Amino acid sequence: MDSPELYHVKQQFTLGAYKSLVSLSLPDADSPDYIPTLVYQARAHLALDDPSAALALVPSDTENVALRAVAALSRYVTAEADPAKEEARDAALEQLRDLCVEVEGDDEDVSEWEKGTVRVLSAIAFARAGEIEEALETLGAGGETHNLEAVAYTVQIYLSIHRPDLARKEFERAKRWAEDDLLLQLIEASIGLVTGRDAYADAHAFFSEQLANPSLTSPRLLTARGVARLLRGELSAAKSDLEEAAVQMGGKPDSETLGAQTVAAGLGAAKTAEADQLFGQLSTEHPGFPLVLDLERKAHLFDELATKFAVPPVAAA
């Protein structure tokens, strides 16, 4: 059973309240909450695209496998952005593979939470490296893993490769053993957001319920509800959520928020200039965003087909 303080930390991380989480004071180093809180704070820094801050939190001489895993993931993310650092990326991935092997044993000094954390953090790096099968295997996809965070990330991978059927199977399997956990509800909302189940009503209700929590400020929840509203055809309300999310991010929206704002602007026919401006910003700041890549592929395909199209001569009068 988690302490109330650790439950609050996990709640903030699960719901994307990363800025609030990184500003929390750490518990005493002798507290059982110390290492989990440190790991969640480091992961929050990673979610905020600040791997150097995440790495700075981890003691360089730590023997804890969860902290070593978050340090290796931080090094991978740091090297990921630089094509010249392939060797550093490969080294980080090998460190994570070694840690996965290390936690396979029955070492009583390593808790189940630490083992699960190593697998999840490793799978995140593997998936980012394009090693999808390795990531799913590391997470125990299709098996009887009783780690809800591993299930959550498995579901996200399946949704990202357009396999909502497999995502739903993972969720249904987890329901047999997991309690009505906040993370379980988030998994269901994520699947609903992709599949459109019940006209997005469940996903919209979940995000709205969490946003009503006065002790939580999460721009990512606002973005999620904005997307749900966008899919429900509630354009004005969606734009309001997305604008507020951008404000809470200090006027620098992340890729998901900016992408959703671009789509929302594109649905307003009278403001095509706004949509063009937002898409230009999205493609410049986040060139790997799926919307940008999809448009690039379709533009290339159009150009390719255009070269094969022969314009017939004009008929003589």
From TrEMBL:
The keyword Transport applies. Transmembrane segments: none annotated. It is a peripheral membrane protein. Pfam families: Coatomer_E (PF04733). SUPFAM superfamilies: TPR-like (SSF48452). The coatomer is a cytosolic protein complex that binds to dilysine motifs and reversibly associates with Golgi non-clathrin-coated vesicles, which further mediate biosynthetic protein transport from the ER, via the Golgi up to the trans Golgi network. The coatomer complex is required for budding from Golgi membranes, and is essential for the retrograde Golgi-to-ER transport of dilysine-tagged proteins. Belongs to the COPE family. Keywords: Cytoplasm, Cytoplasmic vesicle, ER-Golgi transport, Golgi apparatus, Membrane, Protein transport, Transport. Signal peptide: none annotated. InterPro entries: Coatomer_esu, TPR-like_helical_dom_sf. It comes from the Eukaryota. This is Coatomer subunit epsilon. PANTHER family: COATOMER SUBUNIT EPSILON.
